[in-house]
Each structure stands twice: as C-alpha cells, then as structure tokens.
Design goal:
Its main location: membrane. The protein is mainly alpha-helical. The protein is 66% helix and 0% strand. It has 21 helices and no strands. The chain has one domain: Up-down Bundle (Amino acid/polyamine transporter I).
Length: 506
C-alpha cells in the first residue's frame, strides 16, 4: 500500500490535483443523491402506475436484483482503481482503448442527458406545492407543462453549475445535508404511509386490466412500466468517481456503492409499497398523470400542510440529485481530458487554483444540458423521452465495463482475491458478473425499444436509437481518426517520479 500522500494515485500515473476532503458519509451521500430515492420514485411513479397498475411494483425488486449484480462488480473495481471518472478508468484497465474510450464517452453523454432529465422533476412537484410555480399558463395547455419544466430545469442547472464551480467542499456539504434531509423524510414517509394503509397486499396482483389488447399481454406492459424503476437505481458509481477526492477511497468507495443501492431499494420499495396500499382511490385517473402521481397520494393521505412539507423535502432531493449528477459528469470529463482523450483536453482538465475544481467542464455540461431541454421543449413526452434515453446510455456504458470484466474473468486475467485485502467477490465473481451482463443487455434492449407511449409517434419512436447512434458515431469518428493518436496523460497531471518509486517499493 502506498505511503505517499496521494493514496496510491501515482500508481496509475497521476498526481494528486483534486482536493481530497470527502469522508465516509459524503461518499455514501454522493451515491445516494445520484440514485435519489425521492426524486426517482416521485418523478416516474405516475408512468409506472399508469402503464402497469399496482402490479408494476414488482419491477422494483426485479431491477434491484439486476443492479446489485452490477454494483457488486463496480465495488470490486472501486477497491482496485480509486480514480476519477470511474466507468472510463475501469474500462481502460479491462479493455482496449477504443472500448474504454467509448465507455467514457457514452457515460459522459449520458450524465449530461441525465442532468437534463433530473431537473425536469421540479415541474412534477413545484406546481403541486403552489399554483404560482406553474410558470406558463395554468398547466392545461398543450405545452404549458413542458415549457415551465424547461424554465425550472434551467434555473436548477444554473445552481448546480455555480456550486460545482466553487469547489468540492461546498458541493459535498450541500449534498450531505440534502441527503440527510432526504433520508429522514423518506423514513418518516414510510412510517406515515404504513399507518394509513386501507388495503391489503393482494392489490399487488392487480393489473387494472392494462395488459388486454397489448402485444405480449401484461408481460409486455410490465416491461414498459419497469422503466419507472430502472430510472431510479443507477448512478451508484458516483461514490467511486469521486475517489480522488475521498479519504481512504479503496475502503470507503466500495462500501458506499453497495450501501447506496441497498438503502435505495429498501426505503424506495417501502414508499411505493405503502403508498399504493394507502392511496384513497386507486381508480383515480390522476395517479397516472404527471400532474398527479405519487405526489397526489402524499397530499391525500397526509393532508395539505403536512403533505406539502414532504413535497418540500422532495424538492430538496431533486436539487441534490441534480448536483450529484452534474458533479459525476464533471469528474468523468476531467478524467478523460486529463488523458488527452477529448478535444481541448488541456483546458478541460485545468484545475482552478482557488476552488480546486475543473470549472470549464462544470459550465460546459450545464450549457449542453440546457440545450437538450430547449431542443425537446415541444415534445409532449419530454419527461419519458429524455429520461429513457439517459437510462439507456447509462446501461450501455455499464455494459462496456461489465462485459470486458467478464471476458477477463473467463480468460483467467482477473484474480479472485485482492492482494490488498480490499473488497472482492472471490469465487462468486463469475456468476455475479454473468448476471450483470445479461441484465444490462436485456434492459438496454427493453429501454431503447421504439414505443410510442415513451418516445412519441412517427420518427420520435426511434429517438433513443437515433440519438445514441449519432452520439456513438460522432464520438468514434473523432477518436479513430484523431483521438487515439494523441492519448496520454497531460504533463501537468503526471505523477512525479518520486511518488511512483514510493508506490513501486511499497
């Protein structure tokens, strides 16, 4: 184990340039806030329930089983490679340059799209707090909801940009406070909903007849509704993406990753479970609309004043979720730029002397996220369309890590035990890795499938495939023609020879 003050970072050829100040709770909070129990469950409950009825709840444990397999693989990687830009740097050590670059490029692009999708959640919650938060019209117009969502989204992106530009300590402090509020609110919400249940667990086999006339019957409907759950449980790699800013990252990050997924599954699953059992009227059509959904159940069950207090907590959760997503995107962009793997790498990898953070990526990511919102401003399915594209890209980026990892295991190139005594799956690594790959591939296909109820009609049905295809084609064209010939750590980020020697001898 390295005795240098960079926590072994020089082992990977880098010098410590980011501010290492994140502790155990802040690392855990980074993963939890990206997953964001309250943001995800409240943002897309209406879609899951409206599409699959009460029985859609079973997609929650289904998604957990698949994602915990991915998280276990990532925990192993986090223990061995505690470097910024987790997915990119992991794939770089498992696969060939083109594959690893594509993993980073897809994850980075997905982070920007995810930021655009997360900030849309403000519009789902704020107008239910006060009608004045509906900034355009009264919400009944064809584009009132979408335009207001874009305005609120731009405001939130401006906030996350400024916070990230000011430094990791401010970001971690706001994030930790926000996650603490979110967890307390989520647990209290579970308790309050539990004591107000009005029906038994038999409701979870009720499909509301939504499979009738649908291709594949209810199974086909269920796969569509599962998007609501798939949207929540990802982003847990953020705890490792902040590895260069975390104290003792080899031990802290793996635990933070797993705790974030498990906590989100348990608390989020109970919120959905008891909310469905406590809803006054499951036949209320508003439960399947973006202006009603889970927020409406909370207001109905808890009553106006108390219900609105919890909606305020949801606004806090959305805020820190967007902050975490923005932060993760910045670290990924910095990691790739530091390897000169992006155009204008020198500028993108520059650390501000005062704040200790890469400021240019913060501004650039914020600007592009706002542009994505503006492009989709007239799309009626703006919530589900942007969200689904983001999730597909995340799943594909994860596959570009888990597949090379599986190949390395099968070829005997991955040791079952970690020499440093850190987290390792041991003999369970291969079956867990297989599940992670099969799950990722299956859900990628399911999420990208051209469905009108998700992406809209006409050519928009193919939005995910078209967008991802263009992003991949443009990226690979640049990398193959120019990028791969200039790969290499920028001089200002290379580890000193003395630090490398210490690592080699320790």
């Amino acid at each position: 184990m390295s005795t240098s003050n960079d926590h072994g970072l020089s082992e990977f050829g880098y010098r410590q340039s980011l501010d290492r100040s994140i502790g155990k709770f802040a690392s855990f909070a980074a993963g939890v806030s990206y997953i964001s129990i309250l943001t995800g469950t409240f943002q897309l409950f209406y879609f899951g329930f409206g599409t699959g009825g009460p029985a859609y709840w079973w997609s929650w444990p289904m998604v957990f089983v698949g994602q915990i397999a991915v998280a276990l693989c990532f925990a192993e990687l986090a223990a061995r490679y505690p470097v910024a830009g987790s997915v990119y740097n992991w794939s770089k050590r498992l696969a060939r340059p083109t594959t690893s670059w594509l993993a980073g490029w897809m994850m980075f692009t997905a982070s920007v799209v995810t930021l655009a999708s997360v900030v849309l959640a403000y519009q789902v919650t704020l107008p239910q707090l006060w009608s004045g938060f509906q900034l355009v019209g009264d919400g009944s117009g064809a584009h009132d909801f979408g335009i207001s969502a874009v305005i609120w989204g731009a405001v939130l992106i401006l906030f996350t940009t400024l916070v990230n530009a000011f430094g990791v300590k401010l970001m971690a402090r706001i994030n930790s406070i926000g996650v603490f509020i979110e967890l307390i609110a989520a647990v209290l919400l579970v308790v309050i909903l539990a004591v107000n249940v009005v029906r038994g667990p038999g409701v979870f086999v009720d499909t509301h007849g939504l499979g009738e006339g649908h291709t594949g019957g209810y199974a086909g409907v269920f796969l569509v509704a599962a998007i609501a759950s798939a949207y929540v449980m990802y982003g847990f790699d953020t705890a490792s993406s902040l590895g260069e800013e975390t104290v003792n990252p080899r031990r802290t990050a793996p635990v933070a990753i797993l705790r974030a997924v498990i906590a989100s599954f348990v608390i989020g699953g109970l919120i959905l479970l008891f909310a469905i059992m406590a809803a006054p009227d499951l036949a209320d059509p508003r439960l399947g609309t973006s202006s009603g959904g889970l927020q409406l159940i909370v207001l109905q069950v808890l009553g106006g004043p108390l219900g609105k207090v919890f909606l305020c907590c949801i606004v806090v959760a959305i805020t820190v979720c967007a902050l975490a997503v923005h932060t993760a995107g910045i670290r990924l962009m910095f990691a790739m730029a530091r390897d000169n793997a992006l155009p204008f790498g020198v500028r993108l990898a520059r650390i501000n002397a005062k704040t200790g953070t890469p400021v240019v990526p913060a501004i650039l990511i914020g600007a592009v996220a706002v542009a994505i919102l503006l492009v989709n401003i007239g799309t009626p399915q703006i919530f589900t369309a942007v969200t689904s594209v983001a999730v597909v890209m995340i799943y594909l980026a994860y596959l570009l890590v888990t597949v090379p990892m599986l190949v390395k295991r099968l070829r005997g190139g991955w040791s079952g035990r970690d020499a440093g005594g850190h987290f390792s799956l041991g003999r369970f690594g291969l079956p867990v890795n297989v599940v992670a790959v099969l799950w990722g591939a299956g859900m990628s296909v399911n999420l990208a499938w051209p469905r009108e109820q998700i992406y809209g009609g006409g050519v928009l049905r193919w939005m995910a495939l078209i967008f991802i295809g263009i992003v991949a084609a443009i990226g690979l064209a640049w990398f193959r023609l120019r990028g791969r010939h200039r790969l290499g750590t920028l001089p200002e980020h290379q580890a000193d020879r003395g630090d490398r020697l210490v690592d080699e001898l320790s």
